[in-house]
# Entry
Amino acid sequence: MPILDIVIPDEIGDVDECVVVTWLKREGSAVEKDEVLLILQAEKISFELPSPAAGQVTAILAQQGEVVKKGQPLARLEVSEMVATTPPAPPEVAAVPARPAGEVRASPVAKRLAREHNADLSLVAGTGEEGRITEKDVLVFVEARQAKAAPPPAAVRSAPPASPVAKRLAREHNVDLAQVSGTGEGGRVTEKDVLAFVEAQQAKAAPQPRPSKAEPAPTPSPGETIPLSGARGTIARRMHDSLQHSAQLTLISEADVTDLVRQRETLKSQFDLTYTDLVVRAVALALKEHPRLNAWVVGEEIRLQTDIAIGVAVALDDGLIVPVVRAADQKSLREISQESRRLAQRARAGSLLPAEASGSTFTVTNLGMYGVDAFTPIINPPEVAILGVGRMMERLIRRNGDMLWRQMMTLSLTFDHRAVDGAPAAAFLQAIRNRLEQPDWLSP
# Structure
């Protein structure tokens, strides 16, 4: 019987490594197709990994708590029943004699494309190693089949206009923009349209990792030992690496947000709005003026990013996760609020996609609601800076000879001194403070 290596599937998105949370099957266990083998965690997002075929687990190659790379075998499965292929194409299209189902070997992306295009893999000529069917092979087969019954050229739909961020996301997720329905002005495809399309495709794909429905983490008891694994282990490893491999320094400043508080109360009558939303908008505008803070350190290079994608830290029962508000500088305050709320709800429900929690260029973390005045946040690598937001307090301030009660907010900017010097970092923090103190720029 054929042996199949179980690996991290391509469908979960741009993920380089995962942590093995727990195995639900043991060596020697029989397994049915789509039965869950184990639970993995990528960037603090847990999901179940189903079996792509029926058979028996002959070897477990990655143990609980182990960090595994994409493409690394997690287990070996002795297959008793290969994945069923989809209905065959019309006979006149077949240019290759059909193979027995058990001999079909194809990459995960090729299998997904075959399902999406209703292509019979037994009819596709494989050009990969030892005849393995590749993504390109499926696309060539589909194009050949479509050419047989293609409508006149005038009926072929061309790619619609799309925003720069939408185009980048489409490239990252291998999405044909011609298949995406645009909701922007004049049918323009937006970032949200591409993400919705990717999510819909991932929901249809099989095998499809499904978010784990684990119960909230129980409150630990005195004397209990908590292993540094799962989400806790991921956070521990990333924060330790961040401090070990960067030169971090924190600047602290106070902003008079009295006028901002009044503006927020006015805007709240139009839509839900948090102080974090206001800070995210102020940071996005400040990053446009200070691009050195919107950067990654990769190896020996400082890479200034073209997109402004702000991660917003969300506290969960068993750790922390950072969903990403993409193109934050191009979004209105209302759009930032809606996107932040949607991402936070998905994060707390355990349904956040890896693509929605990766690729940030700057991070904002707010501990003000816990009564924290100021703190030293740790940079989320490969970013070069992170902004911590403390609580607001009413203080008596002397101004123009008068004593006034004002609402003050503490801001803590941690930056990587390898990439940014103190003066540019201070100027960036000042730009954020100025916007929060003079909120005339605010609009829904």
In short: The longest helix spans residues 333-349. The radius of gyration is 25 Å. The chain has three domains: 3-148, 157-205, 230-441. The longest strand covers residues 385-399.
